[in-house]
Design brief:
Blueprint lengths: L1 H16 L14 E2 L3 E2 L1 E3 L32 H6 L4 E2 L4 E2 L4 E10 L12 H7 L3 E2 L1 E3 L2 E2 L1 E5 L4 E4 L4 E2 L1 E3 L6 E3 L2 E10 L6 E12 L5 E2 L19 E2 L18 H4 L12 E12 L10 H4 L7 H38 L4 H6 L21 H26 L10 H12 L1 H14 L5 H29 L8 H28 L25 H28 L7 H28 L6 H23 L7 H38 L6
Parallel strand pairs: 10-16, 15-19
Antiparallel strand pairs: 1-16, 2-5, 3-4, 3-8, 6-19, 7-12, 8-9, 10-11, 13-14, 15-16, 17-18
Helix pairs in contact: 1-14, 6-13, 6-14, 8-9, 8-10, 8-11, 8-14, 8-16, 9-12, 10-11, 10-12, 11-12, 11-16, 13-14, 13-15, 14-15, 14-16, 15-16
């Protein structure tokens, strides 16, 4: 009740402040002096076709002097596959650069039939994108054609492109780095970076370099040096009287060709500085989080209205069926029988008949049900706290990996909840194997997660992906599991076993009652089908955006909307399960423990089935991608199954205690 009350209060406060969600920047702004060096860092390359991120320097790009240096990364960044490293790009505050030469790189052999393509061609055909960072903000991608200019604030910019006519791969070997800054009010000579955009071009530079360049082998990169370009575009021509930045018209002028992704390639770049007096440092992430309003707030509102309609219809059904029928039942069961009725010995009917069996422990594995419920309670507490902290703005997007770290740490700390819930339920079921139940909740679901994680890690290693987690990170995860989570589970279980078993308002008989034949609509498959589709229907729109965030590198930061949808999901699960539970008891079937858990938990089954539909959008065809996607989606669906199942069981337990406590039992 306290968590639900807190959630309601904070959701109301967030609605007053606006549902887009806000963030606390999390780091102090850095002000650059004119001419001061500005570091451009490179992150993993990502692809929607493979879903496997790859280290930037796995391809023969230009490297900084002395080799790339890795940034210090937190646990969340490692788990997300981020690999942030230094780059050779030389940028100075407020200093424009014109066709600056970076290096000459040998990309390898050209494309030929029957010959394996080089690394760069394979990456371009797999639609890999670069993800660069300046002053902790990611690069937006600017794409230009004859009529339009489009800027996209997610997924970075492509490594190259495939020509529509020749179907050959071309590399983007020139970039326009456009950086906007905002002058500091208190220090007018300094500026803060507020926007970072990259416009990639493919320019075939014909150049002459020194003789020792000719022996460059495939995959090797020559250091920074000046090459003489024999066919320069205007921005690269030193003979021009006025310097110009590279423009679309120059690159696509008559007689110009793009750069094939093979052979020796000269990499160049422009740096363009512009002052933006209207955009302040504290607001620089806004356009990323809203994805430049690519998904209007109206879509989320329609999703919530759709969910609210489902809740209202369900509540109306409960009001019409349960409240009316229960009032009639209470009146019939509690009134004193007349002499005529006693003489006729009228047979009672309905849910009162199962009062001596309704709280009988489940016939199938009470230990497993208690463990599933404890794990579900742990996941529920982790989810609600993570969404709350995110909606309040504590998990800043500028602090990479914060969301994953928050989820992991909250899950570990909620181990005491899992231990307590499991022990209370198992004691109520009159279970004797207390140690086995506690060990099962401490090692069961985390063991499944860790085992799957190791399999995924092996797959990522075999593909050379940056998703592969280092051994040191594995050790940290094991320390969190065995050093913090497991002791907390046993700690919670200790207090749970010290408590009395849950008291029920009626006694349980020693001989189980025979259950009559049930109608088809009270069968397990039907209750699973209907019990899951309504909660899924209440949240599937937000689920689509969350999957887009996870698998296509889009930003999701409307956590206030998510908080509302999460609340609606929980209410819908509770209501539909209580409704089915009432029908089941009316049919004199008292096996409701597992039925209530699976009815609400079937939402997770629908989410897993929906993942097959969503997978079609990803254009993936590699076996490793199938394993990665369906492995993680299966794990997420299992977690949702346990969480919603726990909500359903607890709702039915409260409902059954209430109705059986309200009637007189002879």
């Amino acid at each position: 009740p306290t968590i639900l009350t807190m959630r309601s209060l904070i959701a109301a406060a967030l609605l007053v402040q606006g549902v887009q969600g806000f963030y606390l920047p999390g780091v102090n702004p850095y002000s650059f002096s004119e001419g001061e060096a500005v570091k451009l860092k490179v992150n993993k390359m990502t692809s929607q076709k493979t879903l496997l991120p790859v280290d930037y320097y796995r391809l023969p790009f230009c490297q900084p002097e002395g080799g790339p240096k890795m940034d210090h990364e937190n646990l969340g960044e490692f788990l997300a596959g981020d690999r942030i490293e230094s780059s050779p790009y030389r940028i100075n505050m407020k200093v424009d650069m014109y066709c600056e030469q970076l290096c000459i790189s040998n990309l390898g052999r050209g494309e030929q039939k029957g010959v394996s393509p080089n690394k760069m061609v394979r990456a371009i055909r797999k639609n890999y994108h670069n993800n660069w960072i300046v002053d902790n903000i990611p690069a937006a991608s600017k794409v230009e054609d004859d009529t339009t200019v489009t800027t996209r604030y997610w997924q970075g910019f492509p490594v190259g492109f495939i020509a529509k006519d020749t179907k050959r791969a071309y590399v983007h070997n020139h970039v326009n780095i456009e950086i906007q800054y905002h002058s500091v009010e208190t220090e007018p000579d300094k500026g803060r970076i507020v926007r970072f955009t990259v416009e990639p071009f493919s320019i075939k530079h014909d150049f002459e370099a020194s003789a020792d360049d000719d022996d460059a082998e495939e995959g090797t990169v020559k250091g920074f040096k000046v090459a003489d370009i024999t066919n320069p575009i205007e921005s690269c021509n030193p003979g021009m009287s006025a310097k110009q930045h590279t423009r679309y018209e120059m690159v696509y002028a008559r007689g110009r060709e793009p750069q094939p992704a093979s052979g020796r390639v000269l990499f160049t770049y422009d740096v363009i500085w512009n002052e933006n007096p209207d955009l302040h440092w504290a607001s620089r992430w806004d356009i990323y989080l809203s994805m430049d309003n690519a998904i209007p707030a109206k879509v989320h509102w329609l999703s919530i209205l759709n969910s609210l309609v489902i809740v209202v219809v369900l509540s109306a059904m409960i009001g019409a069926i349960l409240v009316r029928n229960l009032r009639r039942d209470f009146g019939r069961y509690n009134r004193l029988a007349s002499d005529e009725e006693k003489a006729e010995d009228l047979e009672e009917f309905g849910w009162k008949l199962v009062h001596a069996d309704v709280f009988r422990p489940p016939s199938f594995s009470p230990l497993l049900l208690a463990v599933c419920c404890g794990t579900g309670a742990q996941l529920f507490c982790m989810s609600i706290l993570t969404v709350l902290f995110s909606a309040m703005g504590f998990l800043s997007p500028s602090n990479r990996g914060a969301l994953i770290m928050a989820q992991l740490l909250l899950y570990v700390l909620m181990g005491s909840v899992a231990g307590y819930v499991t022990s209370r339920l198992y004691k109520t079921f009159k279970g004797k194997s207390w140690q086995k139940a506690t060990a099962a909740v401490a090692f069961g679901f985390p063991g499944i997660c860790f085992g799957l994680f190791i399999i995924m890690n092996i797959v990522a290693l075999s593909q050379g992906s940056s998703d592969a987690v280092p051994v040191t990170t594995m050790i940290v995860l094991l320390v969190l599991w065995f050093g913090i989570s497991t002791p907390l589970v046993f700690f919670g279980a200790y207090f749970g076993y010290k408590q009395e078993a849950i008291e029920f308002p009626v006694n349980t008989s020693s001989i189980p009652r025979q259950i009559p034949d049930q109608p088809w609509f009270m069968s397990v498959p039907f209750s699973l089908m209907v019990g899951g589709i309504l909660p899924f229907g209440a949240c599937f729109v937000e689920l689509y955006f969350i999957l887009a965030s996870v698998w296509t590198d889009q930003y999701y930061y409307v956590f206030a909307f998510l908080l509302l949808v999460f609340g609606i999901l929980i209410i819908t699960c509770a209501e539909i399960t209580v409704l089915f539970n009432y029908f089941q008891l009316t049919g004199e079937n008292y096996h409701w423990w597992w039925r209530s858990f699976t009815t609400a938990g079937s939402t997770g089954i629908y989410v897993f089935l929906y993942s097959f539909v969503y997978f079609k959008q990803l254009e993936a065809n590699a076996f490793a991608t199938y394993v990665l996607y369906f492995g993680y989606m299966g794990l997420a669906s299992l977690g949702l199954f346990l969480m919603t199942g726990c909500v359903g069981l607890m709702s039915c337990l409260l409902f059954n205690k209430t109705i059986f406590g309200s009637i007189k039992i002879d």
